[in-house]
Design brief:
Elements lengths: L2 H9 L25 H11 L7 H34 L5 H13 L12 H4 L2 H9 L2 E5 L9 E6 L6 H7 L6 H4 L4 E6 L9 H7 L2 E3 L2 H9 L5 E6 L2 H5 L8 E2 L6 H9 L2 E8 L6 E2 L7 H12 L7 E4 L7 E2 L7 E5 L13 H22 L12 E2 L1
Parallel strand pairs: 1-11, 2-5, 2-7, 3-4, 3-5, 6-12
Antiparallel strand pairs: 7-11, 8-9, 9-10
Helix pairs in contact: 3-6
Length: about 375
């Protein structure tokens, strides 16, 4: 606290030795009076001008914390909650764990039916701080009909798909206002919904498992106006994520096209500029032991462990789990009208898959220079 504030408290009683008893005035170095009303106001102003109370700095720290809480939730919340519940079985609070797991058994199939989205959670202020940290922006290029269902193909995966989460699992970028009447469902690994507490957190944002049962239900038994966002490249694409690289894993990914044909759901290509810029990763070469381990995890568990880093919590000059604050701009392209074919042939699948690849490349080429890429930049389709 500034010294002058302490002096304000002292001077109100006066100082007989200074000859100012009853006047409440004390003179300090420089001859300034510190017992007047104006000096008290000046002292209070100094208190509120302390650097740690600076508004812009506080907002920046809130942005960092909002991003870190999601990263930690993504990485450790499920495992941590599972461990806590298992430990609770061995304590006097064992009944709490029993009740939760009993309810979990009855609620097991809820994620397959779209989960329990909460508009309250999707509108939390924390997501606006999350958005502003990078910042993240959602760009609409075409209207979507509420009488149709959609499969959005999101590219690239990046390390965590932060743009996909912010744009479609929260209202931070106003997805519901930009696409009125459209309900977005971000699809992610089904294994996440076997984790206690984490599953509730994910479902509240409209996140669902990326499996055939869930997608079939949402596209056939949930009415129209549904948009399922699939990060097509998945774990394989995350292994090649690095700053300065624009590459997608798509050439042999055709399952989402088959699902679109079976339900007559229109395909919508999405490219998120900047998704690969927010983390730095150690890339293992093909044939190395590191790549071998990653592929084994991907094959048997469904995800590939990446060795990556961002910045530290308190400084951008240190390493940590906080992503770098690089702009992420997610551009939603023009929908491709898809006919409904209950039994699509391989020829049908290949036709619409090639149309989708062409539309994605055109979307990238049309917008790349707007977001800092040179005209010569080419989207690598693997």
């Amino acid at each position: 606290i500034p010294l002058k504030v302490v002096m304000v408290v002292v001077v109100l009683g006066g100082d007989k030795r200074a000859g100012t008893a009853g006047k409440g005035v004390v003179r300090m170095r420089g001859g300034r009076d510190w017992g007047t009303g104006s000096s008290i106001l000046s002292a209070l102003q100094d208190i509120f001008s302390v650097t740690w109370l600076n508004r812009s700095k506080v907002e920046k720290q809130l942005q960092v914390i909002s991003v870190l809480q999601w990263v930690l939730s993504f990485l450790v919340l499920g495992v941590a909650c599972s461990a806590i519940l298992m430990y609770t079985f061995c304590t006097d609070c064992w009944l709490i764990a029993v009740l939760y797991f009993t309810w979990l058994a009855f609620d097991w199939n809820t994620p397959k039916k779209g989960g329990r989205r909460s508009q309250w959670v999707r509108n939390w202020a924390v997501w606006r701080y999350f958005r502003d940290y990078f910042p993240i922006q959602l760009v609409k290029t075409h209207n979507l009909l509420t009488t149709r269902n959609y499969i959005f193909g999101y590219h690239p995966h990046g390390i965590m798909g932060l743009g996909a989460f912010c744009n479609f699992s929260t209202e931070a970028t106003e997805v519901s206002k930009k696409f009125p009447g459209i309900r977005p469902y971000l699809a992610t690994l089904a294994g996440n919904f076997r984790m206690p507490v984490l599953r509730e957190y994910l479902m509240s944002g409209g996140i669902c498992p990326v499996n055939r049962d869930t997608i079939d239900y949402l596209l056939s038994k949930n009415g129209s106006g549904n948009a399922i966002i699939i990060v097509v490249g998945g774990a394989a694409e995350s292994l090649s994520s690095m700053p300065g690289k624009n590459a997608v894993t798509l050439r042999n990914r055709k399952g989402f096209v088959k699902l679109a044909l079976r339900h007559g759901a229109d395909l919508v290509p999405i490219y998120s500029f900047g998704e690969n810029e927010v983390y730095k990763q150690v890339i293992f070469e093909e044939g190395s032991w590191g790549r071998w381990v990653q592929k084994k995890f991907q094959k048997y568990i469904g995800f590939a462990p990446c060795i990556f880093h961002g910045r530290g919590l308190f400084s951008s000059d240190t390493w940590g789990l906080v992503p770098y604050s690089k702009p992420i701009t997610t551009v939603v392209g023009e929908p491709i009208t898809i006919p409904k074919l209950e039994h699509p042939t391989q020829q049908d699948i290949d036709l619409y898959h090639s149309m989708y690849m062409e539309a994605l490349v055109k979307l990238f080429d049309k917008h790349k220079t707007k977001f800092g890429l040179p005209e010569t930049e080419v989207l690598e389709v693997n």
